[in-house]
Amino acid sequence: MCGRFALTATPEELIELFGLLESDDFPARFNIAPTQPIIVVMAADGGGPGSNLPERRALLVRWGFTPGWVKDPRDFPLLINARAETAIEKASFRAAMRHRRVLVPASGFYEWHRPAKGSGEASQAYWIRPRKGGIVAFAGLMETWSSADGSEVDTAAVLTTSANPAIAPIHDRMPVVIHPEDFARWLDCKTQEPRDVLDLMTPAPEDYFEAIPVSDKVNKVANAGPDIQEAVVPLLVPKATAKNDKNGDKSDDGQMSLF
């Protein structure tokens, strides 16, 4: 899954890539964890051909999706990921897939290769980033949860799909990547229904990411400096690709897993 990621781009870089009018001066973040605020990009009201208004805007939301029908978030599991294969059908994500698709800017994400149970071996963390550098846009879903007293909280989840052959030896899932040429179609919830963007929710090309083994410093949220991305000699080298079922998915739903 996708349980930690980083965003170290400058506001100017975000503005240029996503066509924003402005972006908050957010500091570089090397270890973004669930429940923390994250930047998402969404379609802006009033933008479009012939308009002087920007087509997209950025805002801060809580990483951890809460459906609008939830009465008390304290009694509801934290949904940081949504499976691309089932998000259209899931009650938690169905409305957001139709009306509130967003982009989640990132510099890369972290994943853990976990050894077989009983092996006694330690897990190995990896920093997975675009091979060419720069910003990657994950597919996301957003929902605004309203409490009984009228207060609102904007929340979001990252869509994941089956891992490509390069990532599969580390983990069987990876974030859905939306490429710049597809930003407009993904964010267009007025004319593009969920079935129209299914082709975008596929694994990134095999050579898109590079995986760098890093230390277990990333395991602790308090460790938030650039040193957590320094390469190390891996304790455990993944050898086998995870075997998926005929639908390209695992039998374990995993919607609520941190990793």
Automatic annotation (TrEMBL):
The keyword Hydrolase applies. GO terms for biological process: protein-DNA covalent cross-linking repair; proteolysis. GO terms for molecular function: lyase activity; peptidase activity; single-stranded DNA binding. It comes from the Bacteria. Its EC number is 3.4.-.-. It is an enzyme of class 3 (hydrolase). Keywords: Covalent protein-DNA linkage, DNA damage, DNA-binding, Hydrolase, Lyase, Protease. InterPro entries: SRAP, SRAP-like. It holds the Pfam family SRAP. Gene3D superfamilies: SOS response associated peptidase-like. Belongs to the SOS response-associated peptidase family. This is Abasic site processing protein. It comes from Ensifer oleiphilus.
